[in-house]
């Protein structure tokens, strides 16, 4: 009897130890941890991301870390959170990210990095995020994007690049994004936009372009003709309305009416 009891106790202890090695079930003070939903937003005293991640449930599918003071996402920071579907890092002070900052997040569907201080993104930052459907980069300080920045994001449907400092859209930036239906380039520093930059996004239905200092010259003529054709055929839903917008552009600074016409 004693021998059997020892085995049972030992087995229970073993299971406890194994469980503690593979998961975290605690919830830090100020956070809310309900089932698979973890919310650690608005804890402004938090400056180190890694210091809190080790205290969170690793089985969370939704993780809200917005409105804190995080400045850096170290490589592999979320390697224990392989079940994450939604990650919110908005309204922090992020200025440094690494190619493997979001590695192992194969199931991630939504990534919100809006309202941070990002100036440049590593080329492979989003590599491996094969399930991503929504990427929010709004309100950062991005000046340029690599043509391969979003390579491999074949499931992406919504891409928000609004209110950055982008001066151009690389020709191959949207290559492979055949499921992209919504794209915002509002509030950047775009003066022109090449038709070839948009053509790869064959499912695109909504395109937001206002708030840019457009230079309406011959460089926009190919885009104008392409959008005229879309407006005529109506083949892309809401995108057919973009031509009407581009035809009556108003410069946000000089309040000058700009018409895209052949000159």
Automatic annotation (TrEMBL):
The keyword Repeat applies. Keywords: Leucine-rich repeat, Repeat, Signal. Coiled coil: none annotated. The keyword Protease does not apply. Gene3D superfamilies: Ribonuclease Inhibitor. Residues 1-22 form the signal peptide. One of its GO terms (cellular component) is plasma membrane. PROSITE patterns: PROKAR_LIPOPROTEIN. PANTHER family: ANTIGEN BSP, PUTATIVE-RELATED, LEUCINE RICH REPEATS AND TRANSMEMBRANE DOMAINS 2. This is Leucine-rich repeats and transmembrane domains 2b.
